[in-house]
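Customer escalation, tier 2.

The customer says the design service returned an amino acid string that "doesn't look like it belongs to this structure." They asked us to rerun it and document both sides in this ticket. The original structure tokens are below, unchanged.
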């Protein structure tokens, strides 16, 4: 393994011959395999420091991985940017195609790769207001990205962690945050399990009871898997701690397969900082997915969906053929105990965690680490198409970093974010920016490193020391 950034030391020296001159000495350090992220070369006055945290002295250990905070901040910027690009592109086709038509005859069939760049067709509720064409949807440099349900709950959880000065949210913290930042009346951008959980919180119930099947009939819908992935980034390299942090937020709205699928996504995010720079993104994603697969009980339909899609991918069939086979096996024949296509009479389980997870694995594997191709496939795959695209767009955006995302699309983007498009009660009338959002993420990780990982924050060298499990 090698470091994806080199540490540059700037030394000043003078030598008297007939006059003094100034030279630059560049020292490239030899980094051991335990150092996953190095300094980006920023001087100390650029190092961010949380005024609300008492930074403790720490002696690095042999089991520690060293990660550059400034490099990680750039990757968090890439996460927010990649997620927004993917989210807004996926919104164009959200619920256009669900395979089996609903009771009104809408949503029948699927798109294919040939539909990219062609007219968008009506969704279950009519036409979208975003684009008449199926193509990438961007916010230009002088505009603002709007929040959506794929980004706003994660934004809210980040804020709750920071303002509560904690790494582990309690049920009361979550309930207070939801009631403060989510509108009660429509349009409040909540559906199925999230809406039910909010209604229960309004009645005084606390998480995790709000996600219990006896209280929330939507406990196996998609909600948790698109709102909690970010906890993986808050515990870099340590999926065990990431799962601990995400446990209650996930159980706020999910149980069983929906919970396990959410855990899968959290682990994918937590392992991203361990990506081997000597290998392709595709190879790293395959390793990460194999590790995350361990979160799915072997007898669960979510595990069998993952294994089925992976088998289709490895067989060499096209992504359309894999998607169609997924639909046939689970929506039509309802194999492996997957019954949501008939249990949900409104849209044949179009919001269900299971089928949307299967679709997300199609775009993850067939995208092969290419952010543009992954978003394209996710957008065309069907069902709740903005959700899988946002999950993998955010993950790949993190792995690429800000500049990597810009290079992939050969353009610059807006850096501002309007959380008040969908949520309420945030500072500055809801207008934020990716750099500030990434900085807040660094502050949260500083606390996690000290309080949950038993590691250290070295502000002089702008790095974290993160102990690894034996």
């Amino acid at each position: 393994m090698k470091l994806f950034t080199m540490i540059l030391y700037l030394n000043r020296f003078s030598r008297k011959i007939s006059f003094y001159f100034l030279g630059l000495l560049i020292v490239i350090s030899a980094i051991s395999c335990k150092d996953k992220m190095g300094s980006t070369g920023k001087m100390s006055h650029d190092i961010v420091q949380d005024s609300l945290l008492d930074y403790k002295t720490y002696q690095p250990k042999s089991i520690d991985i060293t990660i550059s905070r400034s490099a990680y901040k750039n990757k968090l910027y890439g996460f927010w940017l990649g997620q927004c690009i993917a989210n807004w592109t996926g919104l164009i086709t959200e619920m256009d195609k669900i395979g089996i038509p609903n009771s009104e005859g809408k949503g029948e069939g699927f798109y294919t790769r040939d539909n990219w760049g062609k007219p968008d067709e009506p969704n279950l509720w009519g036409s979208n207001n975003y684009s008449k064409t199926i193509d990438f949807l961007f916010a230009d440099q002088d505009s603002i990205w709007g929040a959506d349900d794929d980004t706003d709950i994660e934004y809210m959880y980040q804020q709750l962690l920071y303002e509560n000065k904690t790494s582990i949210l309690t049920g009361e913290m979550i309930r207070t945050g939801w009631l403060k930042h989510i509108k009660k009346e429509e349009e409040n951008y909540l559906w199925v399990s999230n809406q039910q959980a909010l209604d229960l919180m309004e009645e005084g119930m606390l998480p995790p009871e709000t996600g219990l099947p006896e209280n929330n009939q939507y406990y196996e819908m998609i909600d948790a898997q698109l709102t909690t992935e970010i906890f993986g980034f808050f515990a870099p390299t340590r999926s065990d701690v990431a799962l601990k942090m995400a446990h209650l937020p996930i159980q706020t709205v999910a149980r069983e397969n929906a919970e396990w699928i959410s855990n899968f996504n959290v682990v994918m995010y937590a392992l991203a900082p361990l990506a081997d720079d000597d290998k392709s993104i595709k190879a790293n994603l395959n390793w990460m997915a194999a590790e995350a697969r361990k979160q799915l009980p072997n007898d669960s339909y979510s595990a069998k969906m993952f294994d089925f899609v992976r088998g289709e991918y490895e067989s060499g069939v096209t992504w359309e053929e894999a998607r169609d086979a997924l639909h046939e096996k689970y929506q039509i024949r309802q194999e492996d105990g997957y019954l949501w296509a008939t249990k949900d009479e409104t849209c044949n389980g179009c919001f269900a965690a299971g089928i949307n997870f299967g679709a997300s694995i199609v775009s993850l594997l067939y995208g092969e680490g290419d952010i543009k191709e992954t978003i394209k496939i996710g957008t065309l795959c069907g069902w709740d198409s903005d959700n899988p695209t946002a999950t993998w767009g955010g993950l790949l955006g993190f792995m690429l970093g800000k500049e990597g995302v810009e290079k992939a699309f050969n353009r610059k983007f807006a850096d501002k974010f309007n959380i008040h498009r969908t949520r309420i009660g945030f500072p500055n009338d809801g207008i934020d920016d990716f750099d500030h959002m990434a900085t807040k993420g660094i502050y949260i990780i500083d606390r996690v490193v000290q309080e949950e990982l038993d590691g250290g924050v070295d502000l002089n060298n702008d790095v974290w020391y993160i102990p690894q499990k034996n």
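Tier 2 assessment: The sequence is consistent with the input. The two ends are 19 Å apart (CA to CA). The longest strand covers residues 64-68. Sent an explanation to the customer and offered a walkthrough call.
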